[in-house]
Amino acid sequence: MKKAGPVAILVVVIGLLCVGMYASLQSQSTVINYDLYDLNAVITGNKDNGNIGDHVKGNEEAPVILFEYVDYTCAYCAEINEILNELVAKRSDDLAVVQRTFLLNNDPRVSAAAEAAGLQGYWKSYADLLFEEQNNWAQARGDELLEVFVTYFDQVSAGEGDLEKFKSDMTSKEVLAKVRFDTGIGAKLEIRGTPALYLDGELINPGANGSTKEAVMRTLEDLIDARI
After folding, report:
1. Which residues make beta-bridge pairs with 100?
2. What are the Cα distances from residue 182, in Å, to 21, 62, 188, 222?
3. How do residues 54-94 score in pLDDT, each as one tens digit?
4. In the predicted model, is pLDDT for residue 129 greater than 70?
5. Per-residue pLDDT tens for 165-223?
6. Considering the entire predicted model, what is its pTM?
7. Which H helix or E strand runs over 108?
8. CB under 8 Å to 7, separation ≥6 — which residues?
9. 3-state DSSP assignment of residue 225
10. CA neighbours within 13 Å on the CB side: how many for 10?
């Protein structure tokens, strides 16, 4: 009989641990007082977010900070992710992007996988890969989806990441607290869909002047220029 490889074994173990993830996320009784936080500033690690701070693309000291609320299963979130990555690279002196999770489908597993990768320094590359490969995993379920998580982590870490730690972190109370915290911010802001983009506390529509990539980039650059 062929022995299961390390990735297959991890998938089975993660599958057992993930059965109650959503219930665990929902059952946390601690009520977070979001009035203690400036939601329009970078939030560092604290007791409410599992000591996992905001994920920032670019220089968080930039004069303009865009706050983005995403769900990894959202198709337009994948499109805007590519645009914002290009924009941060192009306007690195002017713009930083803070990306926060807002669960649309009530399933924390994909976001938890990204957060677990982040604890080993691979958050951006893992999040980008989830968006880039969205069409390839969006319909995956159960063990198939869990195998995607493990395979992607092995890929972004070039085999150097700690798979056992990734497995453990993905279902940890700290990672679930982070997903819950970010989603709670979105709920407080009464977000109805993703991606939701905020500048200076105001919800903006990057597609106001057209939905093409060029039009969205132009709209966002105009908004940046108006603030510097």
Report:
1. 69
2. 16, 22, 10, 28
3. 999 999 999 999 999 999 999 999 999 999 999 999 999 99
4. yes
5. 999 999 999 999 999 999 999 999 999 999 999 999 999 999 888 889 999 999 999 99
6. 0.87
7. none
8. 147, 150, 151, 154, 163
9. helix
10. 22
Non-local (6+) Cβ contacts of 143 within 8 A are: 11, 12, 15
- Domains in the chain with CATH codes: 6-225 (3.40.30.10)
What radius of gyration, in Å, describes the C-alpha atoms of the chain?
Answer: 18
Written as one letter, the residue type at 19 is: V
- Are 183 and 106 spatial neighbours (Cβ–Cβ below 8 Å)? no
Peptide bond between residue 195 and the one before it cis (omega within 30 degrees of 0): yes
Helices then strands (H, E): number in the chain? 10, 5
Residue keyed to tokens 């865009």: 66
Burial 16-51 (b: 16+ CB within 10 A, else e): ebbeebeebbeeeeeebeeeebeeeeebeeeebbbe
Q: Which helix (H) or strand (E) holds 102?
A: none
* Integer Cα distance of 200 and 224 in angstroms: 11
The tokens describing 198, both together, are 């905020």
